[in-house]
Amino acid sequence: MKNEVFVGEGMKYIKENYPELYKVIVDLNNEVYTGKVLDYKTQKLIAIAILAASGDEKGTRKQMTSGISELGITKEEIFDALKVVLLTAGMPSFIKAVRILNEL
């Protein structure tokens, strides 16, 4: 996520115990989410769709939650991104992601 806002015990552990590695991760994150051509909101929707397509429920939930709270992404916008998941990754990934979205 942007601006050194990482969720989860794993990143907390890295930040506390391996600050140099944490800095590299933050720098990479900031380089990826530049918004130079695609704005950050669009990039976040892509991240949501990729995680949903991979079946990563925990990651999908985290990306959806942060997209809604940080960027004001609507559930309708997320659902539009998930329709692409249905077409490209299939029904099981799509249904899992829709269930997560409905729980938020």
Polypeptide structure, described:
By secondary structure, this protein is mainly α. The chain is 78% helix and 0% strand. The chain is built from 6 helices and no strands. It has helices at 9-17, 19-32, 40-54, 57-71, 75-89, 91-103. Helix 1 (9-17) packs across helix 2 (19-32), helix 3 packs across helix 5 (75-89) and helix 5 packs antiparallel against helix 6. 19% of the residues are buried. The mean pLDDT is 91.
Our estimate of the beta-strand percent is under 5%
**Secondary structural class:** mainly alpha
Total number of helices: 6
User: Describe the biggest sheet?
Assistant: none
| Span of the ends, CA to CA | 19 Å
Mean pLDDT: 91
Helix content bin: over 70%
Order of helix and strand elements from N to C terminus: HHHHHH
- Which stretches are low in confidence, meaning pLDDT under 50 for 5 or more residues running? none
Q: How many β-strands, per DSSP?
A: 0
Give me the Rg, rounded: 14 Å
The rough form would be described as globular
Descriptive key words:
globular, mainly alpha
In short:
This protein is mainly α.
